[in-house]
Amino acid sequence: RSYTALTGADGSNRWFDKHQIIVDANGGLGINFEHSIQDGMTWNRWLQEAWHDMQGSDSGFSPLPKVETEFGDVEPITWNLSDTSLSNIQKAAQLAKEQIN
Length: 101
Known about the structure:
Elements (H helix, E strand, L loop, with lengths): L1 H6 L11 E5 L5 E5 L6 H16 L27 H18 L1
Antiparallel strand pairs: 1-2
């Protein structure tokens, strides 16, 4: 169960490693996350804010202003892939599954 949670099982879920908060049986807390150069500061700010919130202390940052936005209707993205592209994706997924197993 832990292996599945921490590794994304077979690796086909590309979002499994983006952020995980891990709590052990003794209440120890850890975080596992992947980030790019562009979003590293955002993660660091979030972690610092969360830490200080849990400690009841001041993070040193001013509160962020509330931003009012309206996104409107959200529409699903549709993909139009050729049969060749679909076949290549299926072959790559099968090869990855074979290598993982």
